[in-house]
Amino acid sequence: MLQTNRSTLTQFLIEERRRFPGATGDFNALILDVTLACKAIASAVAYGELGGAMGNHAPDAGGSVNVQGETQKKLDVLSNEVFIQRTEWSGHLAGMASEEMDLPHQIPAQYPRGHYLLVFDPLDGSSNIDVNVSVGSIFSVLRAPQAVIDSGRDVVEADFLQPGATQMAAGYALYGPTTMLILTVGRGVNGFTLDPNLGEFMLTHPDMKIPPDTQEFAINASNARFWEAPVKRYVDECLAGKTGPRGKDFNMRWIASMVAEAHRILMRGGVFLYPRDTKDPSKPGRLRLLYEANPVGMIMEQAGGRASTGREPMMGVQPTSLHQRIGLVFGSKNEVERIERYHREPALAKEGEPLFATRSLFRD
Ligand code: AHG
Ligand code: MN
Ligand code: MN
Hints:
Blueprint: H1 9-17, H2 26-47, H3 74-87, E1 93-98, E2 116-124, E3 135-143, H4 146-151, E4 169-175, E5 179-184, E6 190-195, E7 200-205, E8 216-218, H5 229-240, E9 251-252, H6 258-268, E10 271-274, E11 287-288, H7 289-302, E12 306-308, E13 325-326, E14 328-331, H8 333-344
Parallel strand pairs: 1-2, 8-9, 8-10
Antiparallel strand pairs: 2-3, 3-4, 4-5, 5-6, 6-7, 10-14, 11-13, 12-14
Helix pairs in contact: 2-3, 5-8
The protein binds 2,5-anhydro-1,6-di-O-phosphono-D-glucitol and manganese (II) ion (2 copies).
């Protein structure tokens, strides 16, 4: 049923743009193309087994592996193609980059090139696809370097290596019981719910805010033996609950779709950690900076939360490569700040050390 009191995403974007009389509308058109890609992916996801797109990509060949060394699902590859097809023709993009492509994607010669770079994880949490648990798409919009705009040359990796603070927009679509789109263009965070009859995203969650405190944390505890001391300390204190230094009980969640965890945290607070650990020295963290940590980080900060490597604010990190991995902590502000504080305190912060003992003067 059409709820006439709600804005559509299109109306929302046009009304936002009126604040900037000089804006051309290119940016809004790009966002609408991206969200059309998300609607197409939502539909493919919703068909499940009936759509013939479940399971691994190229199963006869034993599955294909992306640049991350991860087996690609059919829906990873399909979602990547949908993002490209829906956006490359429009003249708004100078180039794009994705989890599923080793190198930046060039805008084909028959199309004009534009001012923006689109970076995306076409399907986050895709290991959950076959078990019908929520997945999503994450995207980040950057401005192309001026030299790229002026020359119209092909994009290279270095063009994308911009800190999160420079993002023009970030968002994700969540394909859960309902499909939602969460978007920030740098002025707060707004949530839209897909009306499946109209095929329109309707503004249902204006100006989303994350509570600064929480009693809920999310971490893959099977990695506990690889965690660094500050992370161990934080989780131990949560687990100790009422009888520990925090003096309150905590709840734990792990969906294994970061996008779904981000959404839960946006809705009711919480903290998510996929910290740097010692599991594989060649991988400083599990999640990727440019198309996971940065867009989700911008959304968190725009909603009054915080995103960090554990050591420094995520938005300030200078990327060094397209598929760079990084330790990621985000969510309720006071909790993320506490984890950062634990990282700053001396490395000897071990159980039983007098300086850091539960009842020490140095603990709060
Ligand atoms: P992707 O499906 O894009 O490769 O990302 C999966 C990520 C993230 O969504 C999730 O939080 C994490 O991997 C799950 O990690 P574990 O397998 O350690 O649970
Ligand atoms: Mn992902
Ligand atoms: Mn993915």
